[in-house]
Amino acid sequence: DVKVTQSSRYLVKRTGEKVFLECVQDMDHENMFWYRQDPGLGLRLIYFSYDVKMKEKGDIPEGYSVSREKKERFSLILESASTNQTSMYLCASSRTLAGRSGENIQYFGAGTRLSVL
Amino acid sequence: AQSVTQLDSHVSVSEGTPVLLRCNYSSSYSPSLFWYVQHPNKGLQLLLKYTSAATLVKGINGFEAEFKKSETSFHLTKPSAHMSDAAEYFCVVSAESGGYNKLIFGAGTRLAVHP
Asked: Along chain A (117 residues), what's the average pLDDT of each consecutive run of 10 residues?
């Protein structure tokens, strides 16, 4: 079974703090993703990475950065947390299927619920 | 551009009755479509996927979905609801952007199952 592990289930931080959310996958997947989930909005893509040290902006990258120094680990960084970043954050990973990239199934972690006070 | 619309934000059924969760999609080419489920305090789990093979797709836990191109729909059904089906369900389309494939999620439908 694919396992995607997010280091924290719940985090409480103060406005202006630097926040690190960590994600590790154990299936040697090339692709990793960070989403935020808000009621009524579904999941929105923040950043993704298709290889070590590579990153691409998603739909809502403002206020976030990412780091991928090793294939299995993908970190989301909030440089200066703000109250509007209070949300559920979900990490996912997937394999690249040559010629069939639209079929790639993403596997998700359990999520980190972040509260910024 | 690809998008999905889940037509109901909440659906409530009695245990043992059929489930219907509605999804319409928009895609400029033949899409890949998925349904994911999220149980409380859990990550998302793939229920089923459509990738241009059979139009009726069977998934886990007795769920199935039918791809109807003429109606641009991909509704999720189950003949008989179980209490354990209570969860949030997401309809998802795969979209190409900048040479990469990414998933576009619907807003979700929360399914409640009553005894």
From this structure: 88 96 94 93 93 91 96 96 97 76 79 96
